[in-house]
User: What shape does this take?
Amino acid sequence: MKKRVLIVEDEKNIVDILSFNLAKEGYETLEAYDGAAGLQLALEQSPDLILLDLMLPKMNGFDVCTAVRKQNRSIPILMLTAREEETDKVLGLELGADDYITKPFSMRELLARVKANIRRTEVLSAAVEEEPAQGTQIAGGRISINAEQMVAYKDRRPLDLTQREYELLKFLAAQPGKVFSREALMEHVWNYEGYVGDVRAVDVAIRRLREKVEDDAASPQFILTRRGLGYLFHGEP
Assistant: This one.
C-alpha cells in the first residue's frame, strides 16, 4: 500500500513540483492550498506525513501544527519555510513539528527526509503491535525505560513523552556516559544519514525533554551538555 503525503502549500507551482517528485518515488499525495483545508485533510485522511508551509491563508502553519498534535502525535510534520528567522523555526519545533526545511530546498534532501520520517514511524508502529515481553529495562536509578512497551519512567511514574522525545531519551540512555554530537543524534535518532545541515532541532528536542525529565530543567542531572561536543545521559545523579 502506497504511503500518502499531505502537501499544505499555497504556491501551486511548489505543490506541482512536490507532487510530481513524490509520485515518482511511489507516494500518493493529497494537496491543500490553505491551512484550514490542510487541517481538515490531516484529520480526516490521516496521511503518513505532512509537508506544511508556515505562511498560509486562512490558518497559518503554526496553528495547523498545534491542532494536528492535539489530535494525533504520530503523524510526522516537516515544515516548509522561506523564512530565515530563527524564532520561526524554533517555534515550529516547539509546537511539535519534527523538522523543517528552508526554501529553496534540494528535492533530493526533501525526499530523503520524507523517507526517513515515514520509516521511523513504521518502525515504531511495528514495535507497538508486537506482543510485549517482560520488558527490557534500559538505564537505571530514577530513570528507566521499558523498550517493549515503549514507555519511559521517572521514579516509577510514566513520562508523557512524544515519540521523538522517547526515541531521544532511549538512545542516550542506552549508552550512559557517552557523548553524542548533534550531528550524530540527527543521524541516529532522526534517521538522517550523514547529516551535515542545521542541527537546531536537536537542541529544541533536548530542551523539551529536559522539561519533562529533570527536577529542574535549568540545572539538568540526567541529560547533560558537554560544551562544544554534544549531549550525554547520566543515569545516577
Notes: The CA atoms of residues 65 and 199 lie 20 Å apart. Confidence is low (pLDDT under 50) at residues 127-135. The chain is about 40% helix and 20% strand. The two ends are 47 Å apart (CA to CA).
